[in-house]
Design a protein that fits this description.
The chain has helices spanning 2-20, 25-39, 60-68, 155-167, and strands at 79-90, 97-107, 112-121, 124-133, 136-143, 147-152, 181-187, 190-197, 200-208, 214-219, 223-225, 231-233, 236-245, 251-262, 265-280. The chain is of the alpha+beta class. Strand 5 and strand 6 form a beta hairpin. The radius of gyration is 20 Å and the shape is globular.
């Protein structure tokens, strides 16, 4: 009996040590993918900087956003990194709310986004990998670093991933100059954007305030997973606020919320503050 108890205590101790080590298989997969994407030099910008003429064909609201946020005269980026710390993240209307760290990369030459969720549930590590690459989107959730809770793929995830990439496009303006994205002016403060890639299309509306800060993106092209595992298209919004200027003199929103706009009321499932925005450049 004492031997069994001793073995159990050793196993529990090993698990606790394993749980508290920051490394994990999903984090290694994420970092390996990011390193590979960076090494590909996905966008050859030839050390070019943004000029007003680059955006002259785009709606006035976007031109004023670019000018107001300070991008003119800065280098054209090949990828974007955004990091959120201590985000309130809800897993469905009736699901638990987790505090997560969220690290996002968007690559530009072709629509591509990779995001890592790092959290815990009852002291047990929970990690998620949200991705869109080569026209394929998906989300994988792993608990205890080894047990897969879900692994969502399929056409609905592909379209949702493309729509999410579009929602984040104004944070990396090189995206706005690519052939896969088009814009239509709706009003002085609203612009419809459409992105097409690998036979998929997604669209949404960017809304700006009187200072031409982008304050929201809305789309009908993102699907939510229902409790029975099915996918349902529900209007979705990304809300941006509290703009600030950072060390590189670029102005960006410090607060972001992701919202499912259900018929019976809005559900905010992602409520976070941006802790880091940085860019990568072709060598």
């Amino acid at each position: 009996m004492f031997i069994v108890i001793g073995v159990l205590l050793v196993l529990i101790g090993m698990l606790l040590i394993w749980f508290h080590i920051s490394d994990s298989p999903i984090k290694r997969d994420f970092q390996n993918d990011i390193d590979a994407l960076m090494s590909e030099n996905r966008l050859q910008t030839n050390n070019e900087v943004f000029a007003e003429k680059d955006f002259s064909r785009l709606p006035i609201a976007i031109q004023k956003y670019i000018q107001g946020c300070g991008y003119i005269g800065t280098p054209k980026m090949s990828y974007l990194k955004i990091k959120y710390n201590n985000v309130d993240f809800s897993q469905g209307k009736n699901g638990p709310t987790l505090t997560i760290d969220y690290t996002l990369y968007n690559f530009i030459n072709e629509p591509c986004r990779m995001a890592l969720i790092d959290s815990s549930m009852f002291g047990i590590p929970f990690e998620g990998y949200d991705y869109y690459q080569n026209g394929t989107g998906g989300m994988k959730g792993v608990i205890a670093k080894a047990i897969t809770l879900f692994d969502q793929t399929g056409a609905d995830m592909d379209k949702s991933g493309l729509a999410t990439f579009l929602a984040e496009s104004l944070f990396a303006p090189t995206i706005l100059l690519q052939d896969y994205i088009t814009f239509e002016e709706i009003s002085n403060y609203e612009v419809r954007a459409t992105i097409s890639y690998k036979g998929q299309t997604a669209s949404g509306i960017f809304t700006f305030n009187e200072q031409y800060e982008m304050i929201s993106f809305t789309t009908n092209d993102r699907a939510v997973t229902e409790t029975d595992g099915s996918m349902k298209y529900v209007p979705w919004s990304a809300l941006c606020s509290e703009y600030q200027i950072v060390a590189n003199d670029i102005k960006y929103p410090s607060k972001l919320q992701a919202v499912w706009n259900y018929p019976d009321g809005d559900f905010v499932y992602f409520d976070g503050v941006i802790s880091e925005v940085s860019y990568g450049y072709a060598q």
